[in-house]
Design goal:
This protein is α/β, with parallel strands linked by helices. The chain has 2 domains: 221 residues, Spore Coat Polysaccharide Biosynthesis Protein SpsA, Chain A, CATH 3.90.550; 208 residues, 3 Solenoid (UDP N-Acetylglucosamine Acyltransferase, domain 1). The chain is 20% helix and 30% strand. The protein contains 10 helices and 39 strands. Strands 13, 14, 16, 17, 19, 20, 22, 23, 25, 26, 28, 30, 33 and 36 form a 14-stranded parallel sheet that branches. Strands 12-15-18-21-24-27-29-31-34-37-39 form an 11-stranded parallel sheet, covered by helices on one side. The structure holds uridine-diphosphate-N-acetylglucosamine (UD1) and calcium ion. The site of uridine-diphosphate-N-acetylglucosamine has 30 residues, from strand 1, helix 3 and strand 10.
């Protein structure tokens, strides 16, 4: 089998984005564009991937890590010049080299595979991935000769009026015979309207040497969208969102309003989950079967167990068990582990806390840095006082304890198994197993005092 390599062009600053952030790092559904490209192209099986990065693009390296090699293009002198930077690592290699731009995040692994197969089957030295664009403005146009063979690519800014009418565009993705690519690049000049070394010129160079160049036209233009500005970024987001949502729906997930549901590409959702509008599910979240998400929930990097409900709530980096009820208006912050059949009600915040099975925190509470057993009932307005301004301390509440409303549990503290804390208590010492702890001022009633007070106030008028 032919060996395959890939070069990802990601050195451009992306002036048209008008952003301090490198263009290829702008996220589409929560993931940088260039990372989508890298993941899809790598999925077809490659010997090597090289990403061309620009001066100061350390952040691109941070994001992609050791999933690719990097070469630096110090000055952005054009896409041809960018590819030349990879020569050192790829010269002498025999096989197919895919070149793809870091700003075309929607191209799928299936398309990369079909492009390579077409290229290798036809024995071409270069194969351009092309598409018919409804509005070709801004793209390079594919110019064919009278025999309909690809002759060259002309950039928007260099095209004559006839060429501008061509609607077959260069998607910026190609397969090349590796050795022929670097040979042809030696002849590329910067004699054009932008003064750049265009990669696209290698097509004409090869054709003039009577080498075979071809095009692989894909029917779906949407997939080849190149993101140069924020308008295209929004289009990319929309296309990818609908593509992902459709996959989930075909797998048995109900999505009430696919236009208003944002599921990132690495999320796993089991059948019979129902997702209401306005929900965002990101990171490496797993939503187990029969769960109900939303409306308006944001879940990042969480596992949500079978039959659980997360309604109008935010949950991050946490694990939620089975048949759990969350929300409306709950906030589950990182490192929470919520047991099965637990309840996290309205205006409850949970952070770095483990809650056992069947435990209920139904209203208006803050549970942070805590280990809570099973079947604990935490009354309305309870606070784990975990922070002294410098350090955080643990609150332990053992199984079957009952915490009365409006209690402060001043950590470090342990509430023993089966014990009661009276409403309104401020607990500073451990409560033993099976004890009732009352830690509030004793009530005194002064009979008839109210009318006396009123009369006194009246006399003063
Ligand atoms: C390019 C193609 C055009 C095609 C379009 C598809 C050329 C000359 N033109 O145009 O035919 O229709 O893509 O989207 O190739 N880059 C570098 N170094 C550079 C310049 C660019 O790494 O010196 C990178 C950019 O980061 C980007 C990619 O190459 O990811 C494409 O560059 P861009 O400036 O967006 O090219 P287009 O004008 O879109
Ligand atoms: Ca582009």
């Amino acid at each position: 089998m032919t060996k395959r390599y890939a070069i990802i062009l990601a050195a451009g600053q992306g002036t048209r984005m008008k952003s301090k952030l490198y263009k290829v790092l702008h996220p589409v559904l929560g993931k940088p564009m260039v990372q989508h490209v890298l993941e899809q192209v790598k999925a077809i099986g490659l010997e090597d991937v090289i990403t061309v990065v620009g001066f100061g693009s350390d952040k691109v390296k941070d994001h992609l890590g050791n999933n690719t090699k990097f070469v630096l293009q110090e000055e952005q002198l054009g896409t041809g010049h960018a590819v030349i930077q990879a020569e050192e690592l790829l010269k002498d290699k025999k096989g197919t080299t895919i070149v793809v731009c870091g700003d075309t995040p929607l191209i799928t692994k299936e398309t990369f595979e079909q492009l390579c197969e077409h290229h290798e089957k036809t024995g071409s030295k270069a194969t351009i991935l092309t598409a018919k664009a409804p509005n070709p403005f801004g793209y390079g146009r594919v110019i064919r000769n009278e025999r309909n063979e690809v002759k060259r690519i002309v950039e928007q800014k260099d095209a004559n009026p006839d060429e501008l009418l061509v609607d077959e565009i260069n998607t910026g993705t190609y397969c090349f015979d590796n050795e022929a690519l670097f040979e042809a690049l030696k002849s590329v000049s910067n004699d054009n309207s932008q003064g750049e070394y265009y990669l696209t010129d290698v097509i004409e160079i090869m054709k003039n040497k009577s080498e075979m160049v071809s095009a692989y036209l894909i029917p779906n233009f949407d997939e080849t969208l190149g993101v140069n500005d924020r308008v295209a970024l929004a289009q990319a987001e929309k296309t990818m969102k609908l593509r992902i949502n459709e996959q989930h729906m075909r797998n048995g997930v109900t999505i009430m309003d696919p236009d208003n549901t944002y599921i990132h590409s690495d999320v796993v959702i089991e059948p019979d989950v129902v997702i209401y509008p306005g929900s965002i599910i990101g990171g490496n979240s797993i939503i187990r079967s029969n769960a109900i998400i939303g409306p308006n929930s944001e879940i990042q990097n969480c596992e949500v167990g079978e039959d659980s409900v997360v309604k109008q709530s935010v949950a991050t980096d946490s694990k939620i068990g089975k048949r759990v009820n969350v929300g409306p208006f709950a906030h589950i912050r990182p490192d929470a582990i919520i047991g099965d059949e637990a309840k996290i009600g309205n205006f409850v915040e949970i952070k770095k806390a483990e809650l056992g099975n069947g435990t209920k925190v139904s209203h208006l509470s803050y549970i942070g840095d805590a280990k809570v057993g099973s079947n604990v009932n935490i009354g309305c307005g309870t606070i784990t006082v975990n922070y002294d301004g410098k350090n955080k301390y643990l609150t332990t509440i053992e199984d079957d304890a009952f915490i009365g409303c409006n209690s402060n549990l001043i950590a470090p503290v342990t509430i023993g198994k089966g014990s009661y804390v009276a409403a309104g208590s401020t607990i500073t010492k451990d409560v033993p197993t099976d004890a009732l702890s009352v830690a509030r001022a004793r009530q005194s009633n002064k009979e008839g005092y109210a009318s006396k007070l009123k009369n006194r106030l009246k006399d003063k008028e």
